[in-house]
Amino acid sequence: MSVLNRARTAAAGALPDWTGAIAPHLPEWRVCFSTDGSPEPTGIAPVCPDEDHEPADGSVYECCSTPVIEVECTELAEYLVVLLNADRGEAR
Ligand SMILES: [Zn+2]
């Protein structure tokens, strides 16, 4: 098993509990505005399950799932979301 596959498998085992997703389903991630006050979205968080939270709204409210992870770079946040959601598709 490659290093990448080992890391994917370990994360797939840990992420449902950490994020509140129902195993074996992995959380769907989104880019979000985190708590650093920057004008661009520089964090990632699970997609909010609240039907009143517009999917295009990148803010984090009381309704939102955790964790909110600050990565300090919009491009990195967008890249991580694409990577994580791509693996989510494969894990199903
Ligand atoms: Zn929310």
Structure description:
The protein has 92 residues and is of the alpha+beta class. It has one domain. It has a three-stranded antiparallel beta sheet. The longest helix has 18 residues. The two termini are 19 Å apart. The mean pLDDT is 89. It binds zinc ion. Zinc ion (ZN) binds next to loops.
Give a summary of the structure in a few sentences:
By secondary structure, this protein is an alpha+beta fold.
Please report the distance between the alpha carbons of the first and last residues: 19 Å
List the helices and strands in order.
Answer: HEEEH
Biggest sheet architecture: 3 strands, antiparallel
| Poorly predicted regions | none
Task: Let me know the number of strands.
Answer: 3
Give the helix/strand layout.
Layout: H1 3-19, E1 29-32, E2 43-46, E3 69-70, H2 74-91
Antiparallel strand pairs: 1-2, 2-3
Bound molecules: zinc ion.
